Give the backbone structure.
Amino acid sequence: MSDDTILETRDLVKEFKGFVAVNGVNLRVKRGSIHALIGPNGAGKTTCFNLLTKFLEPTRGSIRFNGIDITRERPAEIARRGIIRSFQISAVFPHLSVLENVRIGLQRRLGTSFHFWKPEKSLEQLNDRAMALLESVDLAPFADSITVELPYGRKRALEIATTLALDPELMLLDEPTQGMGHEDVGRVVELIRKVSAGRTIMMVEHNLNVVADLSHTITVLARGAVLAEGPYAEVAKNPQVLEAYVGVAD
């Protein structure tokens, strides 16, 4: 594993009672890059994410992060190493304020994540950092808003802020623009580009315009296996990729 590789999988396999969802996947994610995982429905993309974050255990194969074998580590251990994931469905606390949501993520640094009996004033030391994170995702004007009142695109931006609060070295974004209108998609694309500075991002994304705009490297999955890999301009002309997506070869 070279120094410029942050994450690598070798012959990764996941079987469910005879069904092979991920079939011998070899990934190499370059440090500081934006790496997209794409493919038609059922290709195994989200299963791959679940394996990388250990929500699922691999049947066979290995996962290495910064040169260390993490294949058998638990999800909490993976997160402590700096691999932080967002989900397809926005995962924020709807009835807390925007600031409070980010502050919960920051509590981990204080070691007080489960100190529910402590007074709220004890968390005020986190406010400056929380506001800085909200500023970075253009949510500072919404700091006191109740999260449930935010438009959908702003909720996804808040989720990115709460992910950043955990100080990730590698961010895994699962369908970050799913269900968004054109304006929100553009905002989130620019947000991802902005927060990618100094960290590595791997994302599952259906919107190929987003993939083309953001990604340095694209891995295409089909039926659980790697079909093609490379920059978008190269992958988009691959006849096997065209056949997987539209059913006919070029």
In short: The longest strand covers residues 5-16. The CA atoms of residues 182 and 216 lie 22 Å apart.
